[in-house]
Design brief:
four-stranded parallel beta sheet, alpha/beta, Serine Threonine Protein Phosphatase 5, Tetratricopeptide repeat, single chain, six-stranded mixed beta sheet, 16 helices, elongated
């Protein structure tokens, strides 16, 4: 039965009131009735699409939004909402086309320019994306999303100074923003600037996530009377990241290390298992905070007590995802490290165990390696027996394998 004009007007009024109150679940079926009764009404279709966007029903929102964009060719908002829906659905080319239409209708809009940058970046067109972000920032030089997005593009391109400038600008508007501070800190640290970067890196502890922390006061580097606990912050203490952090960072402080049982005999420090009672402990600190709390630099790292028991062997320990060269006699078991004359590996816990035991070790690092290693390759200050190589430097690796 066809609805009367009065019934349609009543439905539309009730739907708009519900939507204004945030009740999109109640508004959506009413708007669906209005759109069915007025299939050529761009406004009704647009409102229906918006309600479904709010409800997270993006696939269902697409059809009414596409129709609304056709019926409302001079309304930039209809094109923008369609573009947002298409972006979520992964149709970035169509989203870009909708944003182009929106920009022609509303030139000089910073948000539209920014969203074009996002679509272009998703389409693998970083230079054009950067141009779009530049345009957005020329309109609003403090536009947070564009500053953040452009910083990421500049960082990927290796323009550290440009990326830092954008993050600094973003932080002038939101100086306490933990994710922004963390990004700036990591960028500084990867360049070896620990003086400025370590404080910002602590912002990671303010960000909710799957991170472990014991029920103890957080140590801030002050003298303590009682036992101090240091621990890997990873939720899974048996994970590769937790094991490697423990081997690399458990040093230079009078404390008890919370660690996986398999590492206990290699640390040269008192240990405790996770889950054990923490009676008598007065404070705790994550291992990754020690450089900040104790003022470490790459030129002043505390030394390790090495625990090697040498057993001559021609074998090479191989703990890299890259395949070893043909003809190399390799060992892949961490239990057999002492039988190796050399260990080659990625930034993983068996490689750190070899280094901690004083075995000559080559660590293969990607371009975006953990900031702890520093920006330089060659001998590492973390372990006296370690040499750092870029993972794509096959010639250097081949040379070391021949001469070692």
């Amino acid at each position: 039965m066809a609805l009367s004009d009065l019934q349609i007007q009543t439905l539309a009024r009730d739907a708009v009131q519900r939507a204004a109150a945030g009740d999109f679940a109640g508004a959506e079926p009413l708007l669906a009735q209005v759109a069915e009764a007025r299939p050529n009404s761009g406004q009704a279709l647009h409102l229906l699409g918006q309600a479904r966007l709010k409800l997270g029903r993006f696939a269902e929102a697409r059809e009414p939004l596409e129709r609304a964009a056709k019926f409302l060719p001079k309304e930039a908002a209809a094109q923008v909402n369609l573009a947002g829906c298409l972006s979520v659905l992964g149709d970035h080319a169509a989203a870009l086309a909708a944003l182009d239409r929106a920009q022609r209708l509303k030139p000089g809009d910073a948000a539209i320019a920014h969203n074009k940058g996002r679509s272009l970046e998703a389409l693998g067109r970083p230079d054009e994306a950067e141009h779009a972000y530049n345009e957005a920032l020329s309109i609003d030089h403090r536009l947070m999303p564009s500053l953040s997005a452009r910083a990421s593009l500049l960082e990927k391109r290796g323009d550290w100074m440009g990326a830092l400038a954008d993050l600094d600008m973003a932080l002038t508007s939101r100086p306490s923003d933990p994710p922004l501070r963390l990004r700036r800190g990591e960028l500084l640290l990867r360049q070896g600037d620990w003086l400025r970067g370590l404080g910002d890196y602590e912002a990671r502890l303010e960000i909710a996530g799957d991170r472990y922390a014991p029920n103890l006061p957080r140590w801030q580097g002050e003298p303590v009377t009682g036992r101090l606990l240091i621990y890997p912050e990873q939720a899974d203490i048996e994970s590769d990241a937790a094991l490697r952090d423990t081997l690399m960072l458990a040093r230079g402080v009078d404390a008890i290390v919370q660690c996986a049982p398999e590492l206990t005999k290699w640390l040269g420090m008192p240990t405790i298992e996770r889950g054990a009672a923490l009676d008598g402990f007065v404070a705790a600190a994550p291992l990754r905070s020690l450089p900040h709390l104790l003022g470490w630099t790459l030129d002043s790292l505390p030394p390790l007590v090495l625990t090697r028991c040498a057993e001559p062997s021609p074998r090479i320990g191989w703990f890299s995802q890259a395949e070893p060269p043909a003809g190399v006699d390799i060992e892949r078991s961490p239990d057999e490290l002492t039988r190796c004359r050399l260990v080659v590996g990625d930034d993983a816990w068996p490689t750190h165990l070899a280094a901690r035991r004083g075995i000559p070790t080559i660590v293969l690092l990607p371009m975006t390696a953990d900031w702890l290693w520093g920006p330089r390759r060659g001998p590492s200050p973390w372990y006296p027996s370690v040499e750092l190589l870029s993972i794509d430097d096959a010639d250097a690796l081949a040379s070391r394998l021949v001469t070692s």
